[in-house]
Amino acid sequence: MIKKEYKIINETGIHARPATILVQVASRYESVIELEFKNKKINLKSIMGVMSLGISQGSTITITADGTDENDAIRNIENTLKTEGLV
User: Fold this and answer.
1) Tell me, what DSSP letter sits at residue 86?
2) Is 0.90 topped by the overall pTM?
3) Neighbours of 29 (CB within 10 A)
4) Which residues form the HPr domain (predicted)?
């Protein structure tokens, strides 16, 4: 299992477009991928779950991947966070 923490720097936080992209990236992997924010854990493969958290600028999130392709999953999710200007 891999667990990484990120601080959201985007002024609009994780809104619909980047949330959709994150869900699409996470859905490519067999690993269980979770996003934790304010003691709530959701499946990162669920757009409704991501949107329900209301993650704003300055928030700290934790992403966990557990499975056979966890390294690739975390690496690509991190790249997506950076590319979308979220972290």
Assistant:
1) -
2) yes
3) 20
4) 1-87
8 classed as catalytic: no
Q: State which residues of the chain have pLDDT below 50.
A: none
Burial class (CB in 10 A: 0-12, 13-18, 19+), 48: exposed
Query: Which residue out of 15, 36, 42, 84 is catalytically annotated?
Result: 15
Closest CA to 29 of 74, 86, 87: 74
At residue 29, the 3 state secondary structure works out as coil
Strand ranges for the chain from DSSP E? 2-7, 32-37, 40-43, 60-66
